[in-house]
Design a protein that fits this description.
Blueprint lengths: L2 E9 L4 H12 L2 E7 L10 E4 L5 H7 L7 E4 L8 H19 L7 E5 L3 H4 L2 H4 L22 H16 L2 E7 L2 E2 L9 H15 L3 E2 L4 H5 L1 E2 L2 E2 H13 L6 E5 L5 E2 H12 L3 E2 L8 H4 L4 H11 L12 H8 L10 H6 L7 H14 L5
Parallel strand pairs: 1-2, 1-4, 2-3, 4-5, 5-6, 6-11, 7-10, 8-13
Antiparallel strand pairs: 9-12
Helix pairs in contact: 1-9, 3-6
InterPro entries: NAD(P)-bd_dom_sf, PRISE-like_Rossmann-fold
Protein name: SDR family oxidoreductase
Pfam families: PRISE
Length: 358
């Protein structure tokens, strides 16, 4: 049953976060629009909107007859420098909210960022003496460093002051979920890597640091992130608050790595004295992947649309353990929980069903 009181506009509806959010909204009876430059909508019930977020005229034309009550920013555009990240990613937030402002329809805006809010870029926390204290807490102040997350937040705050809507900020840690063509996809990257290892007899080698291998960690299932986004946008006690969001359990990679290897039937190798980047390990695997795709009649031959080894290396190569505190949402009543091992196994099952991996 359609809920015409809640009309969502999802920015980035084809990504891991956005697609899972769209499914959650639709399952709860919302009217859901997904906006992107190149709509590729395979979500039943989602209404696709084609627009360039950096082009005001394009946005005005696309949104002429759309008056959303809730806006969800779930994507960003990667650039070569943080200065460009700030310029581009603040503009996409500002442009959309400016175009929607005259409609006076927005009740709530939710912005998804991440743990770089606390960590900064890799160069910042990789230097000795600058490691942040963990668990990462929502109350921790901004770092004195350029960060496009801060710029995006400031655009949301400014528009909220102008137009009177409420807001929420959501900071996941390593989102695990199904999507193809996403630039930051650790779960699918590891699934592709393990599939190649199984086919070739290679070992499933841990690519990260000693601190990540031995330390405590957590991750965020895209489905639990979606639930928090909807909850925060419709719960009075959650308004105008920043929330960390993870599955709710913790683990060590030195335990989970062997569980993932066992799922695929490959031999795992743990940390052995040095970081062995996955980007280097997989740099010549396109030809192998093409043969796997042909052999098992899979759908996606371009390994770069599935594997983002560079991002997995950044996550797993951190020189510190990383886990987050979820005090803000727990105190406000958010009680959802997701087992992390099942997050990975559910994803792997979905990838097999969709003929993405053998």
């Amino acid at each position: 049953m359609e809920n015409n009181k809640n009309i969502a506009l999802v920015v980035g509806a084809t990504g891991i976060t956005g697609s899972n959010l769209a499914n959650e909204l639709i399952s709860q009876g919302w009217t859901a629009y997904g906006i992107s430059r190149n709509p590729n909508n395979n979500i039943e019930g989602l209404i696709s909107v084609k627009a360039d977020l950096l082009n005001i005229e394009s946005l005005e034309n696309a949104l002429e007859n759309i008056a959303p009550t809730h806006v969800f920013f779930t994507t960003w555009m990667r650039n070569d420098t943080e200065e460009e990240n700030i310029r581009v990613n603040s503009a996409l937030v500002r442009n959309l909210l400016n175009v929607l402002s005259p409609k006076k329809s927005i009740q709530h805006v939710a912005l998804v960022t991440g743990l770089k809010h606390y960590l900064g870029p890799f160069e910042a926390y990789a230097k000795e003496g600058k490691l942040p204290e963990t668990p990462l807490r929502e109350e921790q102040p901004r770092l004195p460093l350029p960060n496009f997350y801060y710029a995006q937040e400031d655009e949301v705050y400014a528009a909220a002051d102008r137009d009177g809507f409420s807001w929420s900020i959501h900071r996941p840690h390593t989102v695990i979920g199904y999507a193809v063509g996403n630039a930051m996809n650790l779960g699918t990257t590891l699934a592709v890597y393990a599939s190649i290892c199984k086919e070739t007899g290679r070992k499933f080698i841990w690519p990260g640091s000693s601190a990540q291998w031995n330390g405590i960690s957590d991750v965020t299932d895209a489905r639990i992130l979606a639930k928090q986004l909807v909850w925060a946008s419709t719960t009075e006690s959650a308004k105008n608050t920043a929330f960390n969001i993870t599955n709710g359990d913790i683990f060590r990679w030195k335990w989970l790595w062997y569980r993932l290897a066992a799922y695929f039937g490959v031999e795992a190798v743990g940390f052995e004295n040095e970081i062995r980047p996955l980007e280097k390990e997989m740099q010549n695997d396109q030809e192998i992947w093409s043969k796997i795709v042909e052999k098992y009649e899979l759908k996606e031959v371009n390994i770069e649309r599935l594997s983002s080894a560079w991002h997995t290396d950044l996550d797993l190569g951190r020189p510190l353990e990383v886990m987050t505190d979820m005090t803000n949402s727990r105190k406000a009543g958010f009680r959802e929980f997701q087992n992390t091992e099942e997050s990975f196994f559910d994803l792997f099952k979905k990838l097999k069903e969709e003929k993405i991996i053998p």
